[in-house]
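Quick entry between incubations.
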Amino acid sequence: MKQTPVQTYQQPDSHGHFGRFGGQYVPETLMPALYELIEVYQNLDESFWREYRAYLKDYVGRPTPLYEAKRWSREAGGARIFLKREDLNHTGAHKINNTVGQILLARRMGKTRIIAETGAGQHGVATATVCALFNMPCVVYMGAEDVERQSLNVYRMRLLGAEVRPVTSGSQTLKDATNEAIRDWVTNVEDSFYIIGSVVGPHPYPAMVRDFQKVIGEECLDQLAERELKADAVVACVGGGSNAMGIFYPFITKDTRLIGVEAAGCGVDTKEHAASISKGKPGVLHGAMSMLLQDNDGQVSLAHSISAGLDYPGIGPEHAHLNDVGRTEFVAVSDAEALEGVVRVSRLEGIIPALESAHAVAYVDRLAPTMRPDQVIVLNMSGRGDKDMNTYEKHIDAGALS
Amino acid sequence: MKKLLVPYLTAGFPQRDWFEPIVRAMDEGGADYIEIGVPFSDPIADGPTIQNASQVALDNGTSARWILSEIKRFRADIKAELIFFSYFNPILALDGLAGAAKHLKEAGFHGVLVPDLSLEQAQEFAGAMAAEGVHYIPLIAPTTTEDRLKKIAPVTTSFAYGVSVTGVTGARQGVAQGLDAYLERVRSLLQRPFVVGFGISTPEDARAIARQADGVVVGSALIRLMEQAENLDDCVNRVKTFISELRTAIDS
Ligand SMILES: Cc1ncc(COP(=O)(O)O)c(C=O)c1O
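Done. Structure below.
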């Protein structure tokens, strides 16, 4: 598919709209808190950003490498594949870039308690980590089903001193954990700060989380320039869309294909998938208008993905907008293909990806052979696979490993 | 002025064919406005009681379209005004905002209340509703500043709904403390009547609130009565009796 180039890009507008998406669809109780947040966020001085960058460098371990996967590129037979190694961040995923930013903000606002939602547990762990670092009480909401399939991360959060509250309503996954976090926020808005884990939620969250994640793409641009290369395609998996937005954003005005990989679960033509762009309709969930999996009555559908971090029926409003204007492409990768991707990059590069990132791996495996050897693909390796070992052990059959 | 009594129900709870009898019971018990709650899969402003009622109603096959067709059928028999109480997404799914406004008007709704629609987001919505003569009922919270109240006042064409607590819906022990200053602020800046809800569970609560506001909304406490009902007759009796008790309490 041909993408439409963009010369300049200024989103969102002052009310948080990205084209027809975004906005602030929340109970009145929260509106004053959102205004307060916008006010503080838009007026951050250089000392804030200095502190943020210092923590990213010394605590998170940035910059992360841009590594050329030569064996895999050769095997795939086409473009050169580079991996942006967000899996090497402290706590094992890109999520911590954002939690560092938000907790520094919460401190500036004088908030004394932190709330978060989590799917795979990576955002929960990243939040629990910065709460330990800054000595703040932390409550993490997590769907009961995810508590089960990501039990290691639950233990990590508890070890870090966070309280994990399993959520048993609805589908018992990320969507319901987010509902519960919002209810807590509505109730405790005076003293609590809600650290949202992706580019979702009411304005200013989608723009703010993107700004805390765009360091990924900025580093890529520098690292490519050092090698005198440019990216022909950037590929990232998309749950809510934060790792994708973080790597895409600095490339929006460049001549680079931007490709988001959604979870196709059992297949986009079944009922069991999480492909909001491919199969959703415009709708409102968790504070913003975006593309949403829903039925004809406007009830939100249950998403399905083997990967807890992608198991979400919505997507960040900026992605919906970029798709609207033809600046990005979205593709979908199934559970089975993602698992094949895990084995492939583990065996070829000695890098075991997170199940979420493995969706991007599986797509790059398809994309690379269609491109020339002088072309460059950058894949956002959003996280490492440690948290998924139970799932891998259960679902990757011995045959694939022999 | 007579105090307003505004009961809420989740349509389709606990059973779909109890909907009409429960609405009639509320009307006969002395309700001024009845909030007809549309169940939603993700009710972020609701506590456990209404969350559960929504889930049961959805499992029973209740949809906004079904509610509209039912109301249209028996609207003429009901004296109270009806308010369509729904999260934004199910309304959007009723053929867009203009389409939804037409549907609400045809069914005979007086107003519409959307717990997850902020004032910032409501302009187009309120306009579409007004074009069909349906009132947009704004929400006010204890965190609402004076500045915001001044913006809410001019778009209030029927009445406004003041939330009594910073929190979600649900019956609580006793009414929230420290309401005086908040309700005074609302009273002084709003030209239209305002009712107060969230957490009102007894006639005593209702009486106390009615002294400071133009009326009361009762939701979760009614849903809990319906949960306890043994059969339809029992449910109708309990609802009607409770509504009359609330009526007496706020009128005294
Ligand atoms: C490693 C990893 N990648 C991706 C995601 C998906 O989130 P997002 O789309 O916001 O990057 C998650 C979420 O938990 C994750 O843990």
